[in-house]
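Quick one - first record:
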Amino acid sequence: MSPIFGNKKENTIKQQIVKILSSEEMLKKDEYYTGFLILTTNNLIWENKKGKSGSSIIIPLESIQSVECKHKLSTAWNLKITYEQTGKVKEKMIPLSTFSTSLKGDVEKWVNIIREIKSGKMPSKQTIIERFDVVTYIGGHSSSSEKHVGKILLTEKELIFEDNQSANFVLKIPYQKIEKLSVKTTTEINKLRTVLAGPMWSMGFPDTNKFVLIEYVDKVGMSQTPLFDSRNKTKDRIMKTLYEKIKNIRKTEAPITQEDPLRVLKLRYAKGEITKEEYEEIKRLLEE
């Protein structure tokens, strides 16, 4: 199958995209200022937004020869696709930007994913529920005290912060591990200097500025307190969405049952914390 372009036949391409999405599994989809980049089981799709420059295109994965991150002064960072069409090698430059923001990190991630697919590996599928662009990580995580500008992606199970310029900095925060969610002012953060690891980035913000503070325990058991800054409306949406996610998870958590004390008792006996006689006596009392 040869790549299908949208130009004068843009409406036909849109119809073909709908047909593909109804018959193939969607592996990844991201929205950008000029269009949607979609990866399915067999195709890479660039769906141009109405009124934006460029045209839609459907590129079969089997026709792709190479992918790379390419910078152009006119359109900043692009995903460059080299593919074969009717025996000829062609190129397609796809601009990945959010309004005026250049997303080099996004291009690098797409490059890696397409290369994995071409090498026979399938990327792990994560459905993005909501996306928040132009978010600044201020600090507070042990892995980095430096400021990073990027985006927050909310999936079914976790919050993901990705740096726009580099694929090397990613924070993944499972909802189940979040212990506290709050908004702190610059003044409050300056008083609680232990919240941040490293330079006090908040010192450069007005005293009235507010940050989203997420307190959680990471996978190695360390307490982390990352801080995020964004537009006030975006902060509100992040807080509300996170709160609903955490609330729903805690609602579905298994309640404590009558068997739990017996399980704890068995563990204490197995660890040698109590004798057999003590175990039998406590068990008898619990079962009465």
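second record:
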Amino acid sequence: MLPDRTMFPVRPTRKKGESLPGYVYRLHNANGHRVPSELHSAFIAIYGKADYERKQQATETIKHVVGNFTDADWPLWPWRYLWPRQPYSHVRICPYCLQESGHHRILWELPLVEACPIHECLLIRDCTCPRYINWRFMKPEWKCHCGQPLQDLHAQVAGKGLISTARLVADAIKWAL
């Protein structure tokens, strides 16, 4: 059985613009635990093509761990079935933002966003090991399964069009940064 939020001695608060999977990762990491497979399965159902009933069950599983949340907590969550996102297993990051803020941004989940509007670099999908970054195999303290700290990765400079698109999306959803 999954522990609920009250069973964790350390309960970090959600950071502005933080993704829900990123928060779940931080909650478990702060308490010295890896994210349980039941939560990964729940996120896969929500981000994937599971039927409505399975998505509702998955939402309840996640709420059990993080507590009840509202539209103000994760603004995109009510539209989780319709809002376009990257697949759950494909994590994208800006290593510079991760180094500065220590959390995964919801903005990075949106397919239109390929660049960081703050650091003007391409979002990273792959580690140097060279496997793609994956929630299921991520080690504590934002490390790839190979042990490489994600905040130490180097990102390439993004083109002006990708930066402009990222800024437009971030401006449209002001809570994303």
